[in-house]
Amino acid sequence: MAQSHFVEALRAQDPANIGVHTVLARLGAGGMGQVYLGRSPGGRQVAIKVIREDFAESPEALARFRREVETVRAVRSAYTANLIDASLEATPYWLATEYVPGPTLVEAVRARGPLPADTCLRLFAALAEALSHVHEHGVLHRDLKPHNVILSAVGPKLIDFGIARGAEQTALTQAGAAPGTPGYTAPEIITRNDVSPAADVFALGATMAVVATGRPPYGEGSLESVTYRVVHGEVDVAGVEPALAELIRECVAGDPGERPDPARIIARCAVSSALVDDPVYRELTAVRGTPVMPSAAYVPTLAPGVPSAPGANVLAAEAKRPRTKLWLTVGAASVALGVVAALAVQSLGDDAKGGGDDKALGEGGAKPAASSAASPAASPAASGSASAPAAEAGGGKEPAYVEATAPNRDYWSAKEGALYGEGTCNLPSEERVDGQFQSSVSDAVNPEVRVMSGKVKIGFRFKYASPDRLKAPFYVSVAVKPPHEIDSSTGKPLSGLRQNNLGLGYTSKPVDIAPKGSGGWGADFKELTYPDDFQQYVNGKPYAQPIPVGNDPGDWTVLFEHVTSEKAYASIGCYGFTAK
Fold first, then answer.
1. Can you name the residues that pair with 302 across neighbouring β-strands?
2. Separation of alpha carbons 485 and 481, rounded Å
3. DSSP code at position 176
4. Core vs surface per residue 222-243: b (16+ CB within 10 A) or e
5. Based on C-alpha coordinates, what's the Rg of the chain?
6. Percent of the chain topping pLDDT 90
7. Architecture label for domain 17-98
8. Mean pLDDT of 295-313
9. Mean pLDDT computed over 48-64
10. What is the DSSP letter of 388?
């Protein structure tokens, strides 16, 4: 349940009473409905979440709400907002918990900026202890993030158990779906919906990265980009005190087995004084009445299959901006290199540029390098305008490899009925090259074969480009991507989830193909063999060996990327072949 130190005056359509409780003010919009500040008959302040009427017609949403009530009732802890009352017999459905005055952690960081390392360690230990208590009740939170932590005068409180569940329960989500919030959802949940206490530890580490830096833990950008970086990138702890940064990195380790448990985290923090005695924490939790003002917007959990009412769950970063439309996007948001996450996400229209949940935390978040995986709408070539000549970008240090930094949506499709392997790519090149770029793709054994089943020869060169026009060096890497996301453990498409490949696939070592003569297929012609000359890199290290083309029958895409560094590249050509 979303609570906030800031409240908003009631509106004409708001109820005067909910059950026996008097409604006093709005506290914000939760993921499933409106949250009010109320007063019990005896005068106790309560936070009341009322489920929206449209949710009441959804069996899945109603089951989730009932589970939240059961979970909050089961977890009686000093670290949670305890259940006071609930009504699940007839609409409107609602639950009431104790009202906890104090800012959410995201509000505190937004107002003050990054917290000092000593305060971070005390808060780290307190939140680890809170998780430990929740886990002792047999419950996994599954949506820990700065928005779901209230800084009360007696210590932090965990709120919003809307997608929490018992460790032995089956998730109430669609097949292939990953509930949670991008940037805080553990990679094993994204890739295989593997939920365990270690996933809550991952979320704790990501949360503390925000507290220590004031920036989103995995940068800003689209849902897919953030999710991709969670699985294949590194958490942003630039500038953080080394010991604190190391503990955060351990908590967000890709392998759940390598993450410390809450007890180990508490020991590592080695606190010697109470969090509530910390001067920075006292400053953050100082409550001076209950001002009636627009509340900081609630950042929603991304849960599949749940409809949204207009005006709900507006991102905090956009709360003051004019909005012309708000819509719900539901579907399979695949990320590259064998990662699939089907998520529902609230998106802002027109003036929103995909800043993500945490944009309001600061403008210093890590951003992905420029790449061919950027959104087509953001690419000058994709939008129909000419990009800068590729020659101007040459001259950098020789890159040793290239790895994907964000999802890639380039696809080649064979022309139906074609005899010679003709086809088309769905997107134009991102860079226009001063000179004609030519490429060829053929079977390594029999060049006359148009449907590949073995090794593939890939040739490329510049034609009619002179050394004085296309400056050396000009590094090009070839990316060969299967049609579907590949499970690295099997070398075949993900079982039961044949999603389009949003990665670069397998890439070659960048080679300099700047012309050194007058052109022709001579010294300037480069030829590579798939799979022999290809590899997949993640975090600067070899990640997966290329698969045989027969492992994923269909239309494969071959991209030619102009590479200026290991993580900066742009497409200059696209081709493909069909495999059987």
1. 180
2. 9
3. T
4. bbbbbbbbbbbbebbbeebeee
5. 26
6. 39
7. 2-Layer Sandwich (3.30)
8. 35
9. 75
10. P
* Active-site entry in 54, 85, 143, 552: 143
Q: Which of 196, 136, 142, 193 is nearest to 167 (CA)?
A: 196
How many angstroms separate the most distant Cα atoms in the chain?
A: 91
- Nearest Cα residue to 373 out of 424, 316, 416, 411: 411
How far is 469 from 160, CA to CA, in rounded Å?
Answer: 60
Domain boundaries along the sequence of the chain: 17-98, 103-165+174-287+295-367, 376-579
Q: Take residue 289 and report the two structure tokens written for it.
A: 């009445």
One-letter amino acid identity for 310? P
**What's the confidence (pLDDT) of residue 472?**
78
Burial of residue 347 (CB within 10 Å: 0-12, 13-18, 19+) is middle
CA dist., res. 567 & res. 225, Å (int): 14
User: Tokens representing 127?
Assistant: 């939140």
**Which residue reads 């009412």 in tokens?**
309
Residue type, 197: P
Question: What integer pLDDT is reported at residue 305 of this predicted model?
Answer: 37
* CB proximity list for 251: less than 8 A, separation 6 or greater: 201, 202, 204, 205, 206, 208, 259, 260, 265
Query: Does residue 531 have a cis peptide bond before it, meaning omega lies within 30 degrees of 0?
Result: yes
Burial of 427 (0-12, 13-18, 19+ CB in 10 A): middle
Nearest to 536 by CA among 473, 487, 466: 487
Please report the DSSP string for 266-289 in residue order: HHHH---S-GGG-HHHHHHH---S
Task: Pick the closest to residue 302 from 173, 179, 143, 202 (CA basis).
Answer: 179
Domains 17-98 and 103-165+174-287+295-367 share a fold: no
Answer for the pair 555, 547: CB distance below 8 angstroms, yes or no. Answer: no
Sign (positive or negative) of CA dihedral 263, 267, 269, 274: positive
Which pair of structure tokens corresponds to residue 205?
Answer: 């580490």
Q: What is the pLDDT of residues 466-520, one digit of tens each?
A: 666 667 788 999 999 999 888 777 888 876 556 678 889 999 999 988 876 554 4
Fold of 103-165+174-287+295-367: Transferase(Phosphotransferase); domain 1 (1.10.510)
Phi-psi region of 549 (alpha: psi -120 to 50; beta: other; left: phi over 0): alpha
SS (H, E, C) 200-259: HHHHHHHHHHHHHHCCCCCCCCCHHHHHHHHHHCCCCCCCCCHHHHHHHHHHCCCCHHHC
The pTM (predicted TM-score) of the whole model is 0.53
Q: How many CB atoms lie within 10 A of CB 325?
A: 10
Query: Catalytic residue at 468?
Result: no
**Residue pLDDT, tens place only, 446-473:** 888 889 999 999 998 877 666 666 677 8
Q: Which two tokens stand for residue 161?
A: 């158990």
- Angle CA(31)–CA(37)–CA(38) in degrees, nearest 5? 125
